[in-house]
Amino acid sequence: MTEHFTDDPNIDKKDEALTAQRFRMLEDIARELSAKDISFPTCFDAALKIRNALRDPDVQIREVVRMVGMEPLVVVKLLRVANSVAYNPSGRAITDIDTAVMRIGLEATRTLAISIAMDQLLRSKDLVCFGDLPKTLWMHTLRTAAAARVVAARLTRVNREEAMMAGLVHDLGAFYMLYRAAQYEEMRIRPDSVRHLITQWHESIGESLMSALGLPEHIIQATREHDQPHALEHGLRNLEDVVYVANQLAGGLAGWLFNGAASEAGHPLLDDPELSALADEIEREFQTLAGVF
After folding, report:
1. For residues 8 and 13, what is the distance between their CA atoms, to the nearest angstrom?
2. Mind listing the pLDDT tens digit for each residue in 192-205?
């Protein structure tokens, strides 16, 4: 009797088989990260508007900074170029988009940003299988960036622009995992399995991803364990604390991945009077960021 195997994705695969598929995806991610030439979509609308805006030969540098400064992958790749030996021989890390654009120049910024946006547009169709999840993650990202900027400015001595940038890239690993999961038919039809993988791996994969993309180490450190619950025993002291608090104020992992189902009881941080007093300002900042796109 001949035993037949099938790769039909509509036939449910469980236990060892499904585990093997998950590990294959993680192994493929590890191989790709080692190559350090990585591209993936974050927000279709943002990529489209960046492409259209930067095609205008008369666009002003302020508008360029405003547009590209709100797109995580564009920000990261611009910073990598700005921190390269060719543009930054002193080795002093550049961590804000304004300085990066000034360092590499308007035309180089335009060329790089359009190239990344075009690539993202081509890849974005792969995320359709996950419905609203990528857009929900995008909104969470902007909320975290807004909260980080306001919290840093009002309650700490942390540079607010650097805090906003760290908030913008803190879930880069989750965007990347969504894109990679979409490459596997078995994962595309099992969103719960993808959610499980993101819950378990997005922070460590994000850390490796940001390292491969050349982000400064202190930014990577600040985003390393942003979804791990912990108390701030000494208050808000550094960029890592700001990112953690901003992420919680934006709903945390449950807020975007499970529509808040896992956090109905709320987080103690949300009851802090100093943070509660910033709610309206954070909302205005978020609306400003979201209004760009």
Report:
1. 10
2. 889 999 999 999 99
